[in-house]
Design goal:
With 80 residues, this protein is mainly alpha-helical. 91% of the residues lie in helices and 0% in strands.
Length: 80
């Protein structure tokens, strides 16, 4: 092969490798974006669940504040 053919082949190989690298990078970025969205959704669900539990606990405490004293007493007696 002539020098021009080798140069063209080298340029072609470099372009193919660059395109493959770009495609791999684009796929990796898409996967990262999807994972970030999934993590945010899971965190939001956990926050919502935590808030609901805290509100239920506060409501139960407001409804029957003597329950805490009863629980502490039972714990102290060892018969919980």
């Amino acid at each position: 092969m002539s020098n021009i053919a080798w140069i063209c082949l080298t340029i072609l190989v470099v372009l193919i490798l660059a395109a493959a690298g770009w495609a791999a990078w684009a796929l990796w970025q898409a996967a990262q974006k999807k994972q970030t969205a999934e993590d945010a959704a899971a965190q939001s669900k956990n926050d919502t669940t935590t808030l609901a539990v805290e509100q239920n606990m506060a409501q139960a405490q407001a409804t029957a504040p003597a329950d805490d004293a009863d629980v502490v007493d039972r714990l102290n007696k060892g018969n919980f």
